[in-house]
Amino acid sequence: MKNICEASGTGGVDGASVRGLMKALACACVVAAGGATPLVGAVTYSGATYWNTPSGPGALAATCSVTLPDEQPLTVPRTLVVGNDVPNGIEIFSWGYGEWSSDVVLSCVGSGIAGPSTAIAGFNPQITFQMLNASGGPGVALNNPGLRLNIWIRPDISSTPCNSSGCSVTDNNYTLYGQLSGSTGFINAGQDKLLNGYANSPSYVYQMINAPVVPGIGRFYPTITGRYSIRVSIVKVGNVNYGPLSVSGLLPGFSVNGTWVRSLFQGSGITIAPPACRLKTTDYTIPMGRWAADAIKYVGTPVYGSQVPVNLPLECSGKVNHVRFRFEDTGTSLSGNKNISLYDTAGGNKIDGLEIELFYNGTKVNVDNTTVIDTGSHGATKASPASLPLYDSVSTAGFYARYVQNTAVTRTGANFTGPVTGKVNMYVTYD
């Protein structure tokens, strides 16, 4: 990334008022953070369930409906700043129950008419949720190899009346069970169930309403409603890439009466961004102070002025390991000593004999558009990758400048006193 900055400064010589200006225009590549609550959305399917007979559909068994969430949270614009210094296994973002989406709801109103068997026609009161697990481990694969999407569910009611090993789902009014990690088990009210699955294999959650048998009478569909909530998190599992984030491959989805609905997990509104730094302020004033033009008569050459701090404040989104500066003199007659050349403020004429040196950590900085100064690490790892403001940590790159006089101060060959100015461009990069 590069910040292109323009800087100017003025100094003065004997008897002149002195002021300085350093203008810094930071043209950083800025990733905009955004956040919004997903639009409320749901898809409802409903129909009549009939007892099936050898001659076809018979009496009405129940009227049932399925409500599936369709908010599509991954389409909501959001920037997550994630550095590769973040440990693996850390959740970089999560949606809680009720935040990711509305609930998955299955409901039936029984007709009170008995049936002879479990055979039905018409609307089948069952929802199958399927997710394909990542080849590199648990969770859903994303287009970013360093990240995974983890999914949990939590039901509001347990399978009833039986919800333990050995139960037959066809004898339950309501059943919720998962086929996860190669085994099947009931998921009961209040449980947080991670659909971690196993590599390259699908995980399933089955939600169904059945007609348990009443001895001596037959089977009856109950009047009952069951639901479960979903929460989702993005977990760092390796080195991350930067750019838009989306689910890779087959989207998790729901099957209702043979129709797959996979829109809940679509979208690429999330952007994974690297930590970044930028110059906090666009205008800088560096007062260089007065300079006695005849100083060399008393001291000899070269003569050096006092050190003037040049503190360049930075603001960062996360921690970057290196912020580097490069300086370019924009004058028409460059310094052979790779310093900042000076000009009179009235006509822009070159001032000979007086220049400005730039230093960092006691070492002279060549103002030659080539020398790169690494000011080291700046910023701090974000406590939350989605936190706002995006640039939430501050730092300072500290340089200093001083006058240096090598010969008599002249303008077009004549001794000169008065205000002077110098200008540099700053190029700032970070990684």
Automatic annotation (TrEMBL):
Domain of life assignment: Bacteria
Residues in Fimbrial-type adhesion domain copies: 271-430
Pfam family membership, one: Fimbrial
Coiled coil: none
Family annotation (InterPro entries): Adhesion_dom_fimbrial, Adhesion_dom_fimbrial_sf, Adhesion_dom_sf
Residue stretches spanning the membrane: none
Cellular component, GO annotation: pilus
SUPFAM superfamilies assigned: Bacterial adhesins
GO biological process: cell adhesion
Protein's name in the database: Fimbrial protein
